[in-house]
Design brief:
globular, 239 residues, alpha/beta, ten-stranded mixed sheet, 5 helices
């Protein structure tokens, strides 16, 4: 049992993600106004949970690291369900088990931390005291399929909006876990080959999207030159 995973992302027309590098809108509107369109489209997806990568979370919300007193892991770690006060969950993959949370929510949604099975007991105790849920994604914290199964079976998540960055999008792509792509195209350009893009798989696989193809579901011009493309993933020969 897996949740439906929708990769929801906004990029420039050349597929780049660093908003401060994008050219300005032609009609004098601010970038932030157009970014608000992306957020409003995301709410239309009406998913049970959403997530983005650890780097994005730490840069925007929790920049400090947790300093361990004891690095001893539990012998048989189990998921922990904290008290949930929000209708939607926010999930984050933290393979280092070291995010220092200043809150148990992100934009009002309760956090579920996805950790390695080797996460120190000291850190798990800290999360429980902060009333933050957690689950495990294999020994290294990178078993995405196991993590998604636990989200579905233990936390009742039927749908999840994956909102980047490119590295986590690439990891989900390579794992064959994305069911739909919701691509919001900003009417501007980055132009640099060095800028991060929508999918950035880091690994040995030469063709991380192997066996997957896209079917266009809809194409909509939203406003101010923003285009919303929705694709369904078809998968074959995936293990």
């Amino acid at each position: 049992m897996l949740p439906k995973i929708i990769c929801h992302i906004m990029s420039s027309v050349d597929g780049r993600l660093l908003t401060d590098r994008w050219t300005d809108p032609f009609n004098g509107q601010s970038k932030s106004e157009l970014m608000g369109v992306y957020a409003s489209i995301g709410r239309k997806l009406n998913t049970d949970a959403w997530m983005f990568g650890k780097n994005t979370l730490c840069e925007g919300f929790f920049p400090k690291q947790f300093h361990l007193r004891d690095t001893t892991p539990l012998s048989h770690p189990k998921p922990y369900i904290a008290s949930h006060t929000s209708d939607r969950l926010f999930a984050v993959i933290d393979p280092d088990a070291d995010i220092l949370y200043e809150s148990s929510t992100v934009r009002g949604d309760c956090i579920v931390a996805i950790l390695p099975e080797t996460a120190p007991a000291d850190y798990l105790d800290y999360l429980q005291k902060k009333d933050i849920s957690y689950l495990f994604a294999g020994a290294k914290g990178d078993d995405l399929r196991t993590a998604m199964q636990t989200l579905a079976e233990v936390f009742g998540v039927e749908s999840l909006s994956l909102q980047g960055g490119g590295i986590i999008n690439g990891a989900f792509l390579h794992a064959g876990l994305i069911d739909e792509l919701s691509l919001v195209v900003y009417p501007g350009i980055d132009g640099s080959a060095a800028s991060p893009s929508v999918f950035e798989y880091i690994g040995k696989e030469h063709l991380p999207a192997r066996g997957q193809s896209l079917e266009l579901l809809s194409a909509e011009t939203v406003q101010d030159g923003i285009v919303w493309l929705r694709y369904c993933f078809h998968k074959a020969n995936l293990t």
